[in-house]
Structure formats: C-alpha cells, structure tokens
Write a structure and sequence with these properties.
about 600 residues, 29 strands, globular
C-alpha cells in the first residue's frame, strides 16, 4: 500500500475509548489468549461451502481455533474464532459444554464463531456437500482446548478498542440486473433482479444492491507494561479465496499481524467475520484486478497496525454479556414444490447432487422436515465497546443498523457465531431474489427474520449497556423563506417499508421492488427497481408540485433534479429504474 493511503487510513481511525462514560468495573481486568491447531489429522477430508462437494488430501495452511478469555471481578467470558466455513449450533454447544466443565465458564458466557473460510473442512452439510463426520466429531474437543488454554493464561491486562476505515478491501458483491436481463432461479422461474458475483463491469448489471460496511474494528489486549498480548479484529469481507485446505486470509492476517507490530511468540491475533453476506473483496464496478491473497492481507495488516498505534488502554472496564434465544420459521415449500422436490430427489437416488435444481430439491425436503429453528443471539459489553453475535450470514446494511442504533460508543458484529442458520436478507431484498434468498438450509429463514434478529440484538445491547438505543436522527432541511414544503421525504432510511416525511411524519410507500442505503445525492438513497413512490396528501384544490432527485440507471447515471405537477391528493413518482432522493412537495 502507498504511504499516502496508509496515512489517510490512519487519519480515519475512530478512537472511541469513552473514558469519562465508563461504568464502574468490578475489578481489574485479566486476560488470556491461546490458539490450538485444528488442522485435520485424517485425510481425505470433505470441504463444503460451494455448490458442490470438494475434498482435500493435505493442508495448504494450518487451521486454528483462537481463543480470548477476559475476566473482571466475578464475570468471565470467552470469545473463540475457528478457521471453519460454518459450524452448526449443535457442534458449538458440544464444545461449550466441554469447555465449561473444564473451566467453570458458563456456556452462555462463551461466543464461538467461524471465520467463513470456504476452504476449510465440512462440519456442516449444506447444498451439494455432506458433513465430514470424523472431523466434525473431533473438532469440539479442540475448540474447548483453546478456551481451557486461554483461561489458564489469565493475567493482569489492559484493553482498548478502535475502528479504522478500510474502504478499498470490501465491496458489495450483489448487483441489480437490468430488467431485461433477469436471471432464472433453480426452480425454473425467471425472477432474479439481483445476484452475487456478476463479473467485472458486466453491462447487464446496473448498481450494487446495498451499501458496504468498511470499518476494520480492533479490540487490543496488552500486558500492564504495554506488551501486545492479543488482538480481536473484525471486518465485513466474505473470504478471499484460497486452495483447499486453507485458513484463507483470516489465518494469514492472524499470523502476520504480530510480526507487523513486533509482538512476541505468545501473541494471539484473530480475524472474526463481520456482516459480509453481500460483501466481497472484488469491486465489480472496476476492471478486474490481479490481486493476490498475500498482497491483500498485507495491506489490511498495515491498516490494522496503524490503527493499533492510536488506541487508548484501560486496566478497569465493565464486562457484561447477555444471551437470548429466538425461534424463527423457515420458508417451507408449498405442496407443488414439495412434490417436485420429492420426485427430483427420488430420481437422483443416493448420488450427490451436482446441478442446482437437484441441490435445491433436496434442500426443499430438508426445510419441510425441519420447519423451525432456534437461534442463539448474544451481546457483549467491554467498556464502551459492544459486540453482537449472530448465527447467520448477514448483509452489511444490517450491521450498519446495529452500529448506528447501539447505545455504546462503538459496536461491531460477529456473524456465523453460535451456529449457522443461513443468510438473512432484509425483507426488501427478498423481493429482488438471487442466491442469498433461495430457500435452503443456507438461506431458509422467514422473510421477517432480519428485523426480528436486529430487534433482539438491540434489546441485548440495551441490557448490557444499561442505556436505551440511539434513535435515528431526523434530518430536517432548511428551506428559503416562504417556500416550505407540505411534505419532505429525505429517503435516508436503511430499514422499514414506509419512508417518513420529516416535516409532518406522513408515511409514503414503495410500489414495487427497492433496496435501501445506497449512495444518494446527499447522504443515502434507495434504489427503485422499476418501482414508484406513492403517498396520500391532504386534499388540495390547487394541486401540488413535487421536486426530487433521480439517478437514472438506464440513462445517464448522473443525479438530475426533476419536477412533477399533479392535482388531487395522490402522489405517484415513477416508475423509476435507479435511485430516488430528497422528495419535496409544495402547494401550487
């Protein structure tokens, strides 16, 4: 990375120590960290997390379970990051029970997550891949061993946290397709307006379907004398891509950060997975790059190292952790699709599914046979830092919702923690379709799963913080004297289905498909995929004039202000294929 880029990233470090607002700690902080090798000892081993099953007969890089144990007074928590694509709740619960028996740490004070390396052994069956039963049976004891080793190393410590912006290393991988270039789903229906990995500068796609969360979050632990002991990093980037069997960039980051900051041999770094369900390192709006995993990781390590330099540390911080369980329905097949699935699966017999219709036929049967799932959700407070744990693959916009509303000064989110219950697209993203919405064990929860999960996590954050969540700030504009609108939709929301008029609270609605949170004319704006914005205004004999900004995806792709006159009380703007922002309605 160029020096000026590093300096720019360093200037964007957000130091959120919050000294004055720290609650009273029960006692001085103690911390311990350890890593345990979880590389398979028996080969070949099954590798999952692609459509089709793969196998490896040797490791390319070692795999580890990395654990951080924190204690203050009577509270002890454990955070573990495992080089795995995804781990089912049942396996993680087994590891927690083993570790609890040996350490005394309650299972509900343990957070165990997967990095989401797509090159790791299969401990969970998904899509066209089976579970590697031998490795899955062996892994829980190794995870527990990491927690045991970390607890044994508990010693006085100091801790600090920060976030630094790394915008060049993650991008939205899910793009909206041209309305005339829609794709077909595995069930034979041509209904896909958005899908992942469209290819670089694909002329058939119009815009990313959501925002990115580019914050690289850092939790740093040192000895009281300032020697680095452990770093828990968090970044919303799906994975880089590496040959099997590998820990991907997560392992490489963890192994090289210590060298960058000149830490000792006992230093443990871990890169946890942020909300990256729709994120990837490729920028599909630009020409293809010749990026390598080594160069990618080294630049991210350099940014992290700069961020660590500015952290303020504390020897006493409040330490709290809460857990809740949430039961959700799965989107089970209707009678017609179930009949098709059973017929397709019967023809396949005992063979592994390879083609997508065969894969999703079997998945439909799995959902039918297991129509509900119970999720474990967690929130941790470390001083004025909040951490949420989510057993799903989560869109970046969902992570931004949690960060913006968290009552704590800084928050980051760890996905694929305490289970693996599939993608949770926000409800409006379900309308756009695509891989992350196709019903399967990897994407099968109910359409309203995302808002229910967000609400549960915000309540947990309120509980550990002892404060209410932050409310969205109403952005009321200033208008020239004598030209005050009767309604003004800022359209900078990132959730819900009814845009709010910030002048009077009048609700509008989108008629058609849309996506929240894209770059707007000023701030954020929704993308309307051929949709209209509609609202009912007070009756007016004279009528109204609507002024608004449009980014036309089919013509020009620049922001232009438009004006629409209408009589009566029914406002209807559109249809629009593009972004809409700042709608003002004036009386004639």
């Amino acid at each position: 990375m160029e020096r000026h880029q590093l300096l720019q990233a360093f200037r964007q470090v957000v130091l959120l120590a919050g000294c004055a607002s720290l609650a009273v700690a029960q006692g001085p902080l103690r911390a311990g960290a350890a890593k345990v090798d979880v590389t398979p000892t028996q080969f070949p081993v099954i590798v999952n997390c692609m459509f089709n099953e793969r196998s490896a007969d040797k490791p390319k890089t070692p795999l580890h379970a990395r654990a951080l144990v924190l204690n203050e007074g009577s509270t002890t928590i454990a955070i573990v990051v495992v080089d795995s694509c995804m781990m089912p709740r049942e396996l993680i619960d087994q590891a927690k029970a083993l570790a609890s028996k040996k350490t005394g740490i309650p299972p509900h004070r343990m957070l165990i997550s997967a990095t989401h390396a797509h090159s790791a052994p299969a401990v969970m069956a998904c899509l066209g891949s089976r579970v590697d039963t031998a490795y899955a049976a062996w892994l829980p004891d190794r995870i527990a061993a990491a927690i045991v080793a970390a607890k044994q190393k508990l010693a006085p410590a100091r801790i600090g946290w920060a976030a630094v912006d790394a915008p060049d290393h993650t991008h939205t991988r899910r793009w909206i397709f041209h309305p005339d270039k829609m794709l077909t789903d595995p069930f034979g229906v041509k209904n896909v307006r958005a899908n992942m990995h469209p290819g670089y500068q694909n002329p058939n796609v119009l815009h990313p379907s959501g925002p990115s969360d580019t914050a690289l979050s850092l939790l740093s632990v040192q000895t009281p004398e300032g020697k680095p002991r452990a770093v828990l990093a968090n970044y919303s980037q799906h994975y880089f891509g590496d040959g099997v069997l590998s820990a991907d960039y997560f392992g490489l980051f963890s192994e090289t950060l210590g060298k960058s900051i000149k830490a000792g041999d006992d230093f443990v770094a871990m890169m946890s997975q942020g909300t990256s369900g729709d994120q990837m390192w490729m920028d599909y709006g630009q020409p293809k790059s010749n990026q390598t995993i080594e160069r990618y990781t080294s630049t991210l390590v350099a940014i992290a190292s700069q961020g660590l330099d500015g952290i303020e540390y504390h020897e006493r911080v409040p330490l709290k952790m809460e857990e809740a369980k949430l039961s959700l329905k799965r989107r089970i097949p209707d009678a017609q699709r179930l009949a098709w699935a059973r017929d397709t699966a019967a023809k396949l017999g005992d063979k592994l599914p390879v083609e997508r219709p065969d894969i999703y036929a079997r998945e439909a049967i799995y959902l039918h046979e297991d129509p509900k799932r119970e999720l474990k959700l967690q929130a941790i407070r470390i001083g004025e830092l909040g951490i949420t744990a989510i057993p799903n693959e989560v869109y970046a916009i969902t992570g931004l919702k949690l960060k913006q509303q968290s009552p704590l000064d800084m928050t980051f989110n760890i996905e694929l923690a305490n289970g693996a219950e599939g993608y949770i697209p926000p409800p409006e993203q379900h309308q756009l379709g695509g891989y992350t919405t196709w019903p399967a064990r990897t994407a099968g929860l109910e359409v309203q799963a995302e808002p229910k999960i967000v609400e549960t996590l915000l309540k947990l954050l309120e509980k550990v913080a002892g404060e209410e969540r932050k409310l969205p700030i109403e952005d009321k504009p200033e208008f020239p004297e004598g030209r005050k609108p009767v309604a003004y939709w800022r359209l900078n929301e990132i959730s819900g289905d009814q845009p709010k008029d910030v002048m009077t609270g009048l609700a509008a609605k989108f008629d058609g498909m849309f996506a929240w949170g894209l770059d707007g004319h000023d701030g954020r704006a929704p993308y309307l995929a051929g949709a209209r914005l509609k609202a009912t205004l007070p009756a007016s004999v004279e009528g109204y004039v609507a002024e608004y900004w449009v980014w036309d995806a089919l013509g020009g792709r620049t922001w232009q202000q438009r004006r629409t006159e209408f009589s009566g009380s029914e406002l209807s703007i559109g249809p629009i294929e593009g972004k809409l922002d700042e709608v003002s309605v004036f009386a004639k």
